[in-house]
Amino acid sequence: MKITKHIFLFVAIVLFASFSKQDAGIQLQNLRCEMLVNPEGIDVVKPRLSWEITASQRNVQQVAYQILVASTPEKLAANEGDLWNSGKVLSDESIHVKYAGIVLKSKKRCFWKIKTWTNKGESAWSETAFWSVGLLNYVDWKGRWIGLDRSFEWDNESQFARLSARYFRKEFVAKKSIKQATVYIVGLGLYELYLNGQKVGDQVLAPVPTDYTKGIKYNTFDVTKLLQADKNVIGTVLGNGRFYTMRQDYKPYKIKTFGYPKMLLNLDIEYTDGTKETISTDESWKVTADGPIRTNNEYDGEEYDATKEMPNWNKVGFEDKNWLKVQLVQEAGGMFEAQMTENMKVMETIKPVSIKSLNANTYILDMGQNMAGWLRMRVTGKKGDKIGLRFAETLQSNGELFVRNLRDAKVTDVYTLKGEGQETWEPSFVYHGFRYVEITGFPTVPTVENFDGRVVYDDMATIGDFETSNKTINQIYKNAYWGIRSNYKGMPVDCPQRNERQPWLGDRTTGAYGESFIFDNVRLYSKWLNDIEQAQKPDGSIPDVAPAFWRYYGDNVTWPGTYITVADMLYHQFGDQETIKSHYPSMKKWIDYMQDKYLVNGLITKDKYGDWCVPPESLELIHAKDPARQTDGELLASATYVRLLDVMQNFARLLHKSDDIKAFEQSKQAIIKAFNKKFLDSKKGQYSNGTVTANLLPLMYNMIPANEKAKVWKSIVEKVLVENKGHISTGVIGTQWLMRGLSENGRPDIAYTIASNRDYPSWGYMAENGATTIWELWNGDKANPEMNSGNHVMLLGDLIIWYYENVAGIKSSKESVAFKKIVMKPEMIAGLTSAKALYHCMYGIIKSDWKKEGNKFQWNISIPVNTKSLVYLPTNSLNQVTESGKAIASVEGVKFVKAVGNKLILEVSSGNYSFNVN
């Protein structure tokens, strides 16, 4: 894995003397507006600006900056900030600096650049960056919603809905020379957009899914280069997506439906003479559903009949007299929102590893990797030949697909050939979770060269990499990487393959935190918090799934509480305080709701899922039935609620809400008192029935009386080492704290044993038995197929966090979030001889690369500009340490802090360092 692209950055305020001298070694890059990769059409009028500084020297800290924002590139080039000139600001802030210029209105285009002063000199001006403002007001949208609110004779609206795609077109004339052209589109459920026959953008499965009755996302594109001062045509195709639901007319009490696909589009044209024109959706557009995409359903697949293709339908001059007049339809209902997250893309193309004949007409293709996306196929045959592609994660012993774990998802694409030489096809409006593909009806003997695997997920950067001397840990990391990327689908879903694919909150409570070390997921999870807020009921309740495509309002703590923990992650990892400010009222509303409704005798009584998916006593079971393996639901709910109160207290401090700070503290202490009274067994030194989870949660949430802590910790250690023989026994809840809990309490060796096991139950057991992602169950190879997805992430718990923070030793200080101050403290674990990690934080790249050989320890590290780090070395003697062969006292950027126990603590400023300990 390699870093494919990059992020943005963050703060703290310390003033230094500034320098006027320009230093060519200090450069600015990765400018970000509101943390966006594509800042077209944002709906924020005071966006936050961030930048990254690079330098060849050590110990470089920003002391001042100046931002210019202009209405044209020419004005910016002339250093005229007609929208905003910040002047020279004495500050070390380099992330989330709020725009404070002229009030921005819809469609405003903004060009900006930045220069900085550091303690080592002044930078040159950065390259020009850009953002544009979207359509801020409802009345900014012109035209009408269009669609076809009916099905056709070839469609099927039963439980297994089959609805064909809708094709729209509109010809128009641009009579003048074009200066600027911008498209704003809401295409529901999914759209493809064309101008003069050329597809606009490289996104797929756009826009991202939402509860369309609450909020609908629009995308913005600069299409200036695609238009001509003459005849033009706009063409769109609408697929079903989550709008026209995957199980129509089925369980309406559970599954939310939204209607038929529909669209609203504005094309704004600005001519060189200053006049403007808007081409919008109205009754003049034409539509047909009798095109080649005969059905598209995320659960069941896409059927494409190439004999129904309409050559040049999206080009000027196509004869559309047989097309229908569009219907003016009811709008979707939700508030119009600029999509501030990345769309999905084909992020990687991989080749199959083999193809084998199953019988005369059936072949099994092996991608060699469980993935999410689809196949691209190249085929030559006769007109009317039909090829079936059915997808699955595993095979039966006889070589056939194993599909029982997919439930009623049909997961089959069908392609009908037109018979005109080599044909290349891939679907437009579905995705599959799969490793294996059953191919039927192929007109020749297929080879791997006929197929490509198209890996699809949100267009976000890979910002982390990790490797150790332990092959099992490395394989688990790779499996996690593939599992996480498989389940980013405009929202974090639980699985990509069966008839579910839902954004369950509990799966990401801690998982989102670990994922943030690998992927630039800040925008995805910021959007998801909005989905959760929109799903909140007026009384304060939050569902287990958001957007609430399934109506699961279960009123437990451990799943809805993810709303709070993800906000905390966004602040801790990315410094996003605005998200906390925005969501605080809704989070507090839920906190109050749960306490008002479920606080009985000092404890929160409601739990729904328990410690979900603990390793069961029998390999065929999905859930353990043995009470000794199960953790009391009231204990889980109450302990988790205490943790959430603690996080809410931190939020209240950030927002200076003193009354709330006191109230949360009082509630927390009252529950802790009742909790210890009911669940703490002092004689046995354990809580409740003594499961690892029952003891671990109060330990990690600081709920244990000081005089009882050692006994409870001893119970955890004995439970893991003796009863469970060094294996995991926790489910989704306990595993969120297991690895860090063991390490932070002095037993990283136990955590390492659990992490490197290859027998049941363990992550290594999954890899040992052929998994290339993470299973839903510890016993996913043996369990009842009703619930054993081969591509889930919920059981990762805090494993990825432990990899980066404890093994590699890359962690953000709690006192100065977003890696402004880095804590580098790798665990020295017997049996592990090396680890290296890279993490691209908001300020730049952090590297940790250590090796142990006998009594020698070598550690190469990189600290980004405008940050500092506390570095913990495995010795208590300064005389045993050198950096690049020099004594520490003579090294620039390094300062001795203190020695604690067997650790030497240094303060290290930005730069690259090579430490050696003898």
TrEMBL record:
It comes from the Bacteria. It holds the Pfam family Bac_rhamnosid_N. InterPro entries: 6-hairpin_glycosidase_sf, 6hp_glycosidase-like_sf, Alpha_rhamnosid, Bac_rhamnosid6H, Bac_rhamnosid_C, Bac_rhamnosid_N, Ig-like_fold, Rhamnosid_concanavalin. It comes from Arcicella aquatica. Gene3D superfamilies: 1.50.10.10, Galactose-binding domain-like, Immunoglobulins, Maltose phosphorylase, domain 3. Residues 816-886 form the Alpha-L-rhamnosidase C-terminal domain. Its EC number is 3.2.1.40. Keywords: Hydrolase, Signal. This is alpha-L-rhamnosidase. The lineage of its organism: Bacteria, Pseudomonadati, Bacteroidota, Cytophagia, Cytophagales. Residues 358-457 form the Alpha-L-rhamnosidase concanavalin-like domain. The keyword Cytoplasm does not apply. Residues 176-348 form the Bacterial alpha-L-rhamnosidase N-terminal domain. Residues 1-24 form the signal peptide. Residues 463-807 form the Alpha-L-rhamnosidase six-hairpin glycosidase domain. GO terms for molecular function: hydrolase activity. It catalyses: Hydrolysis of terminal non-reducing alpha-L-rhamnose residues in alpha-L-rhamnosides.
